[in-house]
């Protein structure tokens, strides 16, 4: 379990690693987790990437090569805060498009659908709400087709202006 430093305020679990630029964590909190044996990775020298980007890089670097193709990263609490942080988290999906990364909040689940694949999504309506959004990240979706939605698409081009 890896936490970006800001997420510590909301968790009730002992993380294996705390990774980030440490700009919003108090020293006594860091010392507390260090005393529990949590590995602390201070990336305060790196102000060019987000804390989530730093965490994903760490996971990628330390995942066994044999398991990298099946790696799926679940990011809880990735949405619902500051808008610039949310957009940074969405950008991480695009930066690491070869990985399956799922961003979760109390009422949303977001992941990147690579254009090189056919995707079939089964919704569990007792858990998920009735809404679905398709938003192109990084480039237009040139031929999107959907079935089972209230308003289906047929070879439709989706762009984000």
Automatic annotation (TrEMBL):
Domain Thiamin pyrophosphokinase catalytic, residue spans: 10-102
UniProt xrefs under InterPro entries: Thi_PPkinase, Thiamin_PyroPKinase_B1-bd, TPK_B1-bd_sf, TPK_catalytic, TPK_catalytic_sf
Enzyme nomenclature, EC number: 2.7.6.2
Residue span, Thiamin pyrophosphokinase thiamin-binding domain: 118-155
GO biological process: thiamine diphosphate biosynthetic process; thiamine metabolic process
Location (main, coarse): cytoplasm
CC per GO annotation: cytosol
Signal peptide segment: none
Location of this chain's protein in the cell: Cytoplasm, Cytosol
Assigned keywords, A-Z: ATP-binding, Kinase, Nucleotide-binding, Transferase
GO molecular function: ATP binding; kinase activity; thiamine binding; thiamine diphosphokinase activity
Record function comment: Catalyzes the phosphorylation of thiamine to thiamine pyrophosphate (TPP). TPP is an active cofactor for enzymes involved in glycolysis and energy production. Plant leaves require high levels of TPP for photosynthesis and carbohydrate metabolism.
Full protein name: thiamine diphosphokinase
Record organism: Gossypium armourianum
């Amino acid at each position: 379990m890896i936490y970006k430093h800001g997420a510590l305020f909301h968790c009730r679990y002992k993380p294996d690693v705390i990774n980030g630029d440490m700009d919003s964590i108090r020293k006594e909190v860091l010392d507390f987790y260090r005393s529990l044996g949590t590995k602390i990775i201070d990336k305060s020298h790196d102000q060019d990437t987000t804390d989530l980007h730093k965490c994903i890089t760490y996971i990628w670097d330390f995942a066994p090569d044999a398991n990298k193709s099946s790696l799926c990263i679940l990011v809880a609490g990735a949405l619902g805060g500051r808008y610039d942080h949310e957009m940074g988290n969405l950008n991480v999906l695009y930066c690491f498009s070869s990985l399956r990364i799922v961003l979760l909040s109390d009422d949303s689940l977001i992941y990147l659908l690579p254009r090189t694949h056919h995707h079939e999504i089964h919704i569990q309506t007792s858990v998920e709400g009735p809404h679905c959004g398709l938003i192109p990240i990084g480039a237009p979706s040139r031929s999107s087709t959907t079935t089972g939605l209230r308003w289906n698409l047929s070879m439709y081009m989706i762009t984000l202006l």
